[in-house]
Request: fold
Amino acid sequence: MMYTLFLVLCLVTSTTSHTSDGMHSTLKEDMELEKQLNLINKPPIKSIHTKSGYIVDCVDINKQPAFDHPLLKNHKLQRKAYFGKNISETNVKTSPTKSPYAIEKVRCPKETVPIRRITKDDLISGKSLFNDHVLTQTNSLSHSTHLFLIRVAGPYYGVSGTTSVYNPNISPGQTSASYLYVENGVAGDTNKIVVGWHVSPQLYNNTATHIYSYWMSNNFKSGCYNILCSGFVQLSRKYYLGARIIPISIYGGTMTEMPITLIQEKTTKHWWLTVADELVGYFPQQLFSNLASAEQVGWGGLTVTSPGSSSPPMGSGHFPDRDFVHACYFRNISFRNESRQDYGPEVKFTRPYNDASSKCYDIDYYGNLRGEFGYALQFGGPGGYC
Ligand SMILES: *[C@@H]1O[C@H](CO)[C@@H](O)[C@H](O)[C@H]1NC(C)=O
Ligand SMILES: *[C@@H]1O[C@H](CO)[C@@H](O)[C@H](O)[C@H]1NC(C)=O
Ligand SMILES: *[C@@H]1O[C@H](CO)[C@@H](O)[C@H](O)[C@H]1NC(C)=O
Ligand SMILES: *[C@@H]1O[C@H](CO)[C@@H](O)[C@H](O)[C@H]1NC(C)=O
Reply:
């Protein structure tokens, strides 16, 4: 069977300036937010107004928001990582920008990086969504369906995989995501980095699909979505967190895929992120209380909904069926262990995790399918009352 695999990242999102309404923030909180906003939104060298109406600022690479983090005051910008195989902005081939689709590219000038301009409302909803995670752990508003590697085969120093990209039907207040992650630390001191795509009207004020990430240290004591706080060091001049992905996969047809790798560099212990073979940037090790290695890595989906409401679709909204054009998938998945080599996970070292009813979501790991799929899994489903 022939299908064309496209990765198209369109640097378009929505969310523009909007006034906060219904938010009872005190004057003090308001001033604090303004302060944070001024810190995050640096004076741009160039501003790009995307078609969707929001703004990307090209900011001096040495003055980007990351360096406002108190623990990164004396951080020296690192432009390259050494993983055995060198990855850098210059030796990575450019991703498929010549696609038959209309793509709005962001091309920031040399020595600048693209940063999505953030409004006060973005900050408020981003924070509340991040804090929701704490709630969801007890209120079970959130469902996770993923595959993880057992501790015995760890510790881990990297995770990668290529996920198909969809646009599940989401209502306001809901989220649906496909992601991979690295995690370390016992309850109370969890450290985690998550990267993937999601639909989250609360974060973007639209129902489009976006590249996203969140990191957390100390069990949500610090961290955030995308760059809603300082920490992530951006290196790419094209791709950035929060970028819209368009077009998305067509059920039974053309797939849009997003290859992601998250790898720790041995000497610095920074976690480097590549998307579609482009080095996007890194999460400095200083951000974490305990992420010198990961005791768990995994791949899968997540949904969030408000209490009493039905959970949204996960992935494509269809159950795994081993045919790779219906359910959402991760293919060519691999992990990196102490040998600092990449391996496909043997089935015996993996466990599926699904905290929802199998009437809502499911996950299937097939091991090594060889060929273009490699080690592959499928996950997702229609949702409902799980
Ligand atoms: C969200 O988007 C809608 C329509 O695109 C717009 O009318 C509304 O003002 C936006 N809301 C916020 C809070 O930005
Ligand atoms: C990576 O780059 C470093 C510094 O330029 C060089 O010493 C090393 O040999 C390179 N490694 C590979 C595998 O190309
Ligand atoms: C890394 O994982 C591979 C594949 O499971 C295994 O053969 C190898 O022994 C592991 N190496 C270490 C250092 O754990
Ligand atoms: C799988 O991913 C590795 C990098 O992790 C890449 O070198 C390889 O070409 C990929 N294989 C396929 C079939 O996509």
